[in-house]
Protein 1
Amino acid sequence: MYFAGIDIGSTMTKVAIINDGVVSSVIGPTGPEHRRLANKVMESALAQAGIPFGGVTYVIATGYGRVNVPFADRQVTEISCHARGVSSLFPSARTVIDIGGQDCKAIRVLPNGRVKEFVMNDKCAAGTGRFLEVVAEKLGLKLEELGEMSLRAPVAVKISSTCTVFAEQEIVSHLATGAGPESIVAGVNQAIAHRIGAMVDRMGLEKDVVITGGGAKNIGLVKALESRLGCPLRVPSEPLLTGCIGAALLGKDYVLQARQRGQTLPTKERKLESAVSLYQ
C-alpha cells in the first residue's frame, strides 16, 4: 500500500509518498494558487514513484494551506505531522524545533511519536525564515549564503531588537559604522537562537533535539542554537520533508488501525485535477 502526505507551508510545498519507506518526494515553492500547486507536486511525486493516483490508499494534507488540497482524505495539524515524521527518522528524539517561513515551533515528542506539548511563535517574523530573508535582502546576499558566512565572522555584532522592522534598522546602523556582513549575519543568527531558546525554555528541553524546516539548512543558526541550548542538534538529511513524511505515516497509521477494528476509512475519489485546467 502507498500513502501520501502533502505539506503546504507558507513558502514551500512538500509531498512524500511512502510504503515501507519513502519512495518519492518533491519540494516546490508555495505560490498564491495552492490547489494548482498541490496537484502539480502530487503529479510529480506519482511520476517519480511510478504509480497511478488510484494506487495511493490514503492522503493527508498538513501545513499552512492544508485546507486547499481538494484530493486529501484528511487534514492534520503540522504539529502532529512533524512529531510523527521526526520520530520515524530519529526514534530517540524528544524535542523538535521547526523553523518555518512564517513561524517557529518547539514540540515535545513522546516515544510513540505523539505530541506531548508544544509552543509556537506565529505572531512575529523574528525567529523565522522570513527574518533571514529580510537580512539577506538587506545585505544583498542569497539566503543560502548566510550560514557559512556567519561562521567566518571575527566577532558577532549585537542585534538587540526582537522585531524584524527594528532589527532591520539595527542592521543598517551596523553597516553605517563599518561592521562586516559576516559579523552582522553572525549577530542575526545569535539573536534568532536567543529568541528560539527562550521559547524552548518555556516548554522545557528534553534530549535528543532535532531541528527541521528551512532554518535547519543554516549551519550558522544551528551552531548558535547548539550554543544557546547547550546540546547538539540532529538535522535530517532533508529537513523540509519531515512534515509531509509524518503526514503520510499518520495516514498509514489511521488505515491500519481502522482495519484492525474491522473498519474502512472514507476516502476521496482518486482523481487529480489538471494543473493546467484548474483555473480556466
Protein 2
Amino acid sequence: MLNVGYAKHDGDWNWQDVQSPFARIYYVTEGYAKVYLATGVIELRPHHLYIIPSYTKHTTWCDGKFSHYYLHVYEAFRKEADIFEYYDFPSEVEACEGDERVFADMCRLYPYAALPASDPSSYDFASKFNQYVKRYNDMHLYEKMELRGSILLLMSRFMRYATPCVWTTDDRISSVLDYIHLHLNDELDVDVLSKVACVSKPYLTRLFQRHFNTSPLQYVNQKKVEKAQLLLLTDDLTIKEVAYSLGFNDHSYFIRVFKKVTGRTPNNYRDEMK
C-alpha cells in the first residue's frame, strides 16, 4: 500500500494522461465523474468500486461534487506475471456492505498515507514514490498483514466477476510467460521462447498475435520497459546500466524501445518524474 485516503472535489478532479506504476482502487461516496481509458469510458457512481491497473494511461473528469476513497497499491519487482495478465477484471463492481468501513478504517489507522493533493504531479514522481515505498517497508509485520487483508478483501469484489484470459488454458503460452517474467533481466529472443513452448518460431508468433495482438518480442520489450520505468524511479543507475541490467546489449536500442513504448526517452521520463 502506497496511499489511502478520502478526497472531496467540486469540478476539480480533471487530470490528463495519468500513468503510474501502481494500481488504483476507488470507492465513490458522492457525485459523478468519468475516467477515460484507451478501451472506453468508465462512469463513476456512488456505492461502487473501481479499479485502474498499473501502467494504464487514463484521464479523469468531473464538473461538480465528487467524493471518493482511494487506494494506491504497488508490489515491488515481482518476477511472476501480474494477476491482471491472467484475468480480465471488470473496471466497476457494486460495493458490498462493509466496503466503505474497510476504507474508513485504513484512513483512520494510516492518516499519514493520504495524498498531499489530488494532482498526480504532487505525488507521482520519484522522491515521493520512494518515500511511500520506504514507509510501507518500515511498517511492522502485523500492520502489513492487516493492510494486505483489507486489500485482498477489496480485490475479491473484482475477482468475483473476473474471467480467466483465453490463453490461460494454453500451457505453451503459460510456460513462455512464466519464463519471460523469471528471466526479464536476461537477453530474450524468439529462439529461446519457442524452445520453452516446444513449438516453432512462426507458430509461437501466431499464438502471441492471437492471444495478445502483439509479437513475442514486442511483449518482452513491453515488460522490460515497465521494469525500466520502476528502476528509473527507484534507483540511481545510469541509462546504460538500466539497459544492461535488463539484458539489452546495446543501450541505444534500449532507448529506442523505451521511447516507442512510452513516447519518451528514459532521460525525459526520469526528469519528468523527479
Protein 3
Amino acid sequence: MRTDMKRMGTKGQRAAWMGALLAVVLGGTGCGSECVDTFDCRDKGTPAEGKAWACVAETCTQVTVDIEEVDAGTDAGTGSDAGTEPDGGTGTDAGTDGGTVACAPLPREQVLGTLQLQSGFSVAESAELSPEVVAVVSTPGPTHSLFGLRTTATGRDFFALGTWPDVTLGTAALDTVLAPADRASAADTYPSYFLAYDGTRLLAGYTKSGAGFPGSVAVVDPSGRDAALYLNAPGNYTAAGTTDAFFVNGGGLDTVTDGLGVYALVTSAKPYVAVKVADFPAQVGGSGFTAVADNGIAVFGYSEPDTYVNVAYAVSSTKLGEALASRTPVVLTNEPKVDVGSDFNAAASFGNGVALARGAYGATGFGVTDVSRFSLTPGLGGGQPISVGTRVAVLNAADACTSVDLLSSLGADLLVGVKDVNGRRLVRIRQGP
C-alpha cells in the first residue's frame, strides 16, 4: 500500500509529514460550530488525492499532505538514519503503523485513523478491542451480544465480549476451542481465525501439522446448557453460521471427508448431521473464505493453484437446501462468480451482500488496499440465477499506517477491526448517510 509519489530522502519525508501535522494541530484547537478536531470532519467524504481533512479555524478544510513514498524496507531499519531517532524501527510506531517511521505525525482521526470512508456509507459507534481477540461474532439483536475468539500462546478460547457498544473481554473463558487430546500442547496447534454463530451455538476451530492438516472444530452453547462438542475437521480454514447450521470451508467435517470443499453442520436436532454442500475444482491451492448474507445467499471460495489468490462464488439458499436434502454438493464453479478484481483475506456479511478485504501479499505481509461490498440479489421466479453486484468501495487504505485486521457483522451493518497507534477498535459501518 505505497503512495504513488516519487521518492525523496528521509529528512525531506519527515519535513513533509511535519508540515501536514502542523496544519492539523493549528486547526484542531477551536470549538466552533462545524468542528473541534479532525474527527468531526469524518462525514465530509473522501478528500482529493494528496489531501486530508483537518479542522482549520473551526471549519472542515482539505489540507495538503505533501508526502513522498515511505517504504518500510527503506525507512524502518535499513535507511541511513534508521535507529538514530525514536521512530527508526525500534519505537512503538514501528510495526504497529506498518513499519514506517513517518506514521506518527500523519493526520488521522480517532476512529478510522488514516482509512478513508467512501460515499454511501457512514460510521456509527466504535469500541476498543483487545489485541488477543482474533475473531468476533454477534447475536442478531436488537440488543447485540458479542462473543470473541481469544488466542494466546497457551490457549484458544471462547469469550463473552459484552453488549455492543460496551465491548469488554470477559474475565473467564466460556469454554476452550481445543479438544481434550490437544489441551496439553496448545503451542502445536494453529488457530483458524473464525468464529461463527448459528443463532444458539458458537463454532471455532484449529489445525495441526501433518498430512491433510488434521484439525477440529468446537461447538459451544454460550448459555452453558450443553457441553462443548468437538468434531473432526481437517484443514478447516473459515466458517459462517446461519439459523441452525454452520458452513465450514475445509477438508471434511465429523465423519464426512471428501476432499476440500464446504461442509454444512445441521444443528436443528441432535445428533448434528454433517453434509458436504459445495465441491471445489480438483486442483485448488487450498481452502478459502466463507460468508452468508442476510438474505441467505452464501459466498464460498478457495485459493487458486500456484498463485494462491482467493476467488469466490455466490450460492443461493435454494441450492444449498437442495444440496442438503440430496446429499449432492453444488459444483461451485457453476455458480455466479464474485468479480473481486484482486486477492482478498477476509469476508463478512454486510446486509444483503458481502464485504471483502482486498489486497495482496508483499514484503511485510498481506496489505489491505480497501474493504469493498458486493450486493447479492436473489433470482426472480422461474429459476433465474442470483445477481452479484459490482464492487463498491467502503473503506480505502491510503497508506500502511492504519490496518484492517478483522471483518464481522452487527445485524445488517459491518464491523471492521482497525489498528494503529491509537490502539485497536471495532468500528460499525452502515450503508447510507
Protein 4
Amino acid sequence: MTSFMQRVAATVIVLAMAALGGCAHAARPGCSTDIPTLFDRVSPAVVMISAQSINPYKVQGRVSHIIGSGFIYDSKGLIITNSHVAFGRQTLFVTLDDGSVVAAHLLGADPIFDIAVLQIPKPEKGKLTAVPLGDSEHLRVGENVIAIGNPLGLDQTVTRGIVSGVNRILPDTPLSLSEPLIQTDTPINPGNSGGPLLNMCGEVIGMNTAMVQDAQNIGFAIPISLIKSIVPALIRDGRMIRPWVGFHGTVIGNEVRKVLKLSLTDGLLVEVVEPGSPAETAGLRGGEIEFTLGTISLLLGGDIVTVINGVPATDPDKIAPMMRTLKVGDTLTLSVFRDGETRRIVYVLPERPLLPGDLPEEQAGSQQPLVMPRRDKP
C-alpha cells in the first residue's frame, strides 16, 4: 500500500471513530451503539422492587406503597438499589425479568448516600444474570448513556441521553457528607430510582437516584465508583460507619463579607449545630438570623471556623477531602472566631447516628437520632 493510500485509510478510520461519538469504549470488544442489543443483554439483570411502609406517626395515610428499580450485583442474589426504595420498609418484593416475584431481605443501607443492598434467594432452576460494573472515574461530558428501570411502574423501560455533567453536588449538603453525582438528561421518573445508568458497553456507570421536579430532563445518578466503595461495608456491617462531626455551614470570603458589611473573618460560617451532637456538647454555636440576598442565603450569628485540624477552612475543595478522612474516635480541633476573638474547640468524634433529615419524609417521623443496628451475620 502506498503512503498516500495509508493516509487515506487512516483518515477513514478516524472519521469512522468520530461517527461513533469519539468514545474510546467503541473499540472495546462487546461494545456497541446498538441500543436494542444492549437492552437485550442487560435487561435480564434489572429488577422491579415493590415495597410497603407504615408510618405510625400519621393518623391518616399511614401506609405507603413504593415502586423502584434495582440491578443484580452478582449471581448469589445480591441486588443494589436506592436506600429510599428499601430502607425502613415492612415488605420488600423483587420482580425478576422472567416475571417471577420473590421476597427480598435488606442486607444493609446507607440513607445518606442513598445506597442499599438486598438479598434474594437463588433460583431453583437456571441462574441470575448480573450486570457488569464499569468505571465512573473517567466519564466525559457528552458521553452517550442509557437508563433501564421501571418508571411509574412500567417495567423494563429504556431511555437514552448523555452525561450532562459530572461531580455535581446537590445544595444544602454538609461538606463531610457531600456526594459527587452524575448529571444526565436521560429521562428519569419515579420508579427509575435504583436502576442502572449504563455506558454504551452495557456497563453500569451510575445508579439513578434523583431528578429535578420543575426542570426538563435534569436527573442525577450515584457514580459506580462510590457504590463500589460502600457496598462491601453494607454487606459486612449493614450500614456505613462514619464519624459525627455535628455541624455544617457555608464557607464565606471577602465577596460575602462586602455584601454583608459586617466585621467577620473568612472561614466556615456555622449555620446549623445538630441537636445532641458532640459539636453541641463542645459549645459550638449555630446561626439564628436568616439572611437572603439574591443567590446568597445564610443563617447568621453563628461561629466562624477558621481552621479544622490544621487545614484552613477557607476553601471547600480542601475542606471536603480532609473531612472525608475523619474516622470514629478521631479528635477534631477547631479554631473558632466568635465575638471578635479566636478560641479553640476540641472534641472526639463518635459514630454518627441516622438523623431525621437523612430519611425520606414518610420515614422521618421521630425527631430523635436513629441508630441503625448491625445486622445479624448470615
